[in-house]
Each structure stands twice: as C-alpha cells, then as structure tokens.
Design a protein that fits this description.
Layout lengths: L21 H5 L28 H5 L6 E7 L3 H11 L6 H11 L9 E4 L4 H7 L3 H13 L2 E2 L4 E2 L12 H8 L4 E2 L4 H4 L3 E9 L3 H12 L4 E9 L5
Parallel strand pairs: 1-7, 2-3, 2-6, 6-7
Antiparallel strand pairs: 4-5
Helix pairs in contact: 4-6, 7-9
C-alpha cells in the first residue's frame, strides 16, 4: 500500500512486482518461437527448421555452437538494456535473468560452466558492476549450472564500439579479451555458456568464444538478454 508496484520500464502502476505495464509489454519483443540457431534472432515464417540461421549468421560464420536471446533490442527491450548498463537498475537483473534462462534452457549441456563478457577494470569501477556478470550469475543459479565470473579477462581498454562496422569492431577487439590463465584448468574439456547483455554484430562474442575454445573449452554456446536486428 505504501510502495505499490510499478512497471519495470516506466512509472505506471502494475498488479505484481517486477512486471511490465500493458503499454511497455506491447513494446517488448520477446523471442518465443523459431529463433536463429546461432544468435537467437526470430526467423521469418511459422515453420523454421531446427538449426536454421538468420541472414546475418548465414553471412558471418560464428565461432560458437549455438545461441539464444530473450528480447529484441528495441522499444522496451532497449530501455531495459540501457537501464542495466548505465542506469544502476539492479532491480532489472532478476526479471532479465529469468527471461534469459527461459530462452536458453535448450542450450544447457552436462557439466556446463557459465561465464560472462568481462569489462576492463576502469569501466567496471565507473559503472560499479558488470551487468553481464550479474546476469550470468543469476542465469547459472536458475539453470543449476556452475558459474565463474573471471574465466575471461580484458587486459586493455577499448573504445565504445557503437557506430563501428563489424570489421572495425573485430580489429578494435583484437587481443582485448583473453583467457585468464588461472582459470584454464576450470574450462578444460567443458562446454561453456557465455553470457552478455546485448549482441549487435557478434564481434565481442566471437573474440571471446575463440579465446575460450583455444583455451580448451569443449564448445561454446552464447546467451544474451537482447539481440539487435535491422527491423528493430
């Protein structure tokens, strides 16, 4: 009565805690069926075959085995991601992780380890937390998997990738994401679920996936909260 629940994405009153109002729900594009097997983006049509890929993933070979996403990066989905990244909206972590765990349930493999895309220490200090690590921690708990936040490290800072082409993103990230030598034994021979908040071109996930497989991981699957697509 004193603090009535409000929408996760705006100030509208809602009936339950950590819910979305009608308007924000209509602007939230959940990926519920027929995802691209590599990135999770929704495929056109109602009869997508298992293992089918979107146009982006047909053009660019992905160094991971499979991928899923919970939301399209647009409308409410974009506001939620930006709230996690820059708005100190830790209250969004729980609902976001539940959406991700639901989307990525079929990625789970025996003895799988969950990890996340790291931030450079200066950016982490500025933000006060790594949103991808916090999402990964909660996803691992929901899926009953082991979690390690620092399998990968970011030894050098990189500029913001917004506006860069996929090729420029890869060049910028070259050598920026590497395996933590102290964790190599932890991933040896194990499948890894790599978590990030949003996938745009896939450059960050590609560099990280290669570091994991070169470091001995059996295979890598990726799970994101949101996927940027052209029509969003």
């Amino acid at each position: 009565m004193i603090y009535p629940p409000t929408c996760l994405a705006c100030d509208a009153r809602v009936e339950t805690e950590q819910g979305l109002c009608g308007a924000c729900w209509r602007e939230t594009r959940f990926v519920n069926a027929h995802p691209c097997d590599a990135c999770g983006a929704p495929l056109a049509g109602d009869h997508a075959e298992p293992g089918e890929l979107c146009d982006d993933c047909l053009r660019v070979a992905r160094p991971w085995v499979a991928g899923r996403t919970a939301l399209i990066y647009g409308g409410t989905g974009r506001r939620i991601v930006l709230g996690l990244k820059h708005g100190d909206r830790l209250d969004l972590m729980g609902p976001a992780a539940r959406w991700m765990a639901r989307a990525g349930g079929d990625l789970v493999q025996p003895d799988m380890l969950v990890t996340a895309i790291p931030l450079h220490w200066r950016r982490r200090v500025k933000r006060r937390y790594n949103q991808s690590v916090e999402l990964g921690r909660r996803v691992a708990r929901l899926l009953d998997l082991d979690f390690c936040p620092d399998v990968l490290i970011r030894p050098r800072a990189t500029p913001v990738l917004d506006g860069k082409s996929p090729a420029d993103r890869l060049r910028t990230l070259d050598g920026a994401l590497v395996l933590n030598p102290a964790r190599q034994g932890l991933i040896a021979g194990r499948p890894v679920l790599l978590v990030d908040d949003v996938m745009t071109s896939g450059a960050t996930l590609s560099v990280a996936s290669r570091a994991l497989t070169q470091g001995g991981a059996a295979n890598v699957r990726v799970l994101t909260l949101a996927r940027a697509v052209k029509e969003a």
